[in-house]
Every structure is written in C-alpha cells, then in structure tokens.
Amino acid sequence: xxxxxxxxxxxxxxxxxxxxxxxxxxxxxxxxxxxxxxxxxxxxxxxxxxxxxxxxxxxxxxxxxxxxxxxxxxxxxxxxxxxxxxxxxxxxxxxxxxxxxxxxxxxxx
Length: 109
What we know:
Layout (H helix, E strand, L loop, with lengths): L6 E3 L9 E4 L3 E6 L4 E6 L3 E7 L11 E2 L8 E6 L6 E4 L4 H16 L1
C-alpha cells in the first residue's frame, strides 16, 4: 500500500529547491545539497514552531537546510539525533506547522 503525503511544500528558491512533506506518522525534509532526506517521526519530535529570522536569535547551533536566516521559517526540535534543532523554510510556514500539529497533537492524546 502506497502512502501519500497529506501536505507538500514544493521546491522553490527560498527553500533552495528542497521539498518538505507531511505524512500521518512523520515529516520528510528532502535536502538536495547532500542528497539526504531527513525523516522525523512524530514520536521523536519534541516541538515544532514558526520563527522569525534570523536563526541566530533562537538557536545558534541549529542546522539550517535553506535560507532560514532570511525568511520566516519552521523549527523542529527532536530527541535522538546529533543535530537536534532543524530550521527550514517551506512555502507557507503556518500551514506546514498546522498540518504537522494536527497529527503531532493526536499522537499525544
């Protein structure tokens, strides 16, 4: 059975042509620069929020996947990985966070 994303932020210039997807059980961040896809399951997430630039004000050591220093961006904090804080810029940060929170909050109930 093929699983389809419930929300997709298509590649654009401000995301450095990265694509970000929301699924019912995870978030996938396709990072083309190193041909890597970060897969973050909701049970490994601590929080997700929208932030104003620059990233330096919030978390200096966050891994930035795109132009997050210059745009309103999304920040994810996770439990288990080396880089616990990720920052990235989907096309519509508020809608992306709302799509994630829908499933993230259901998991906690």
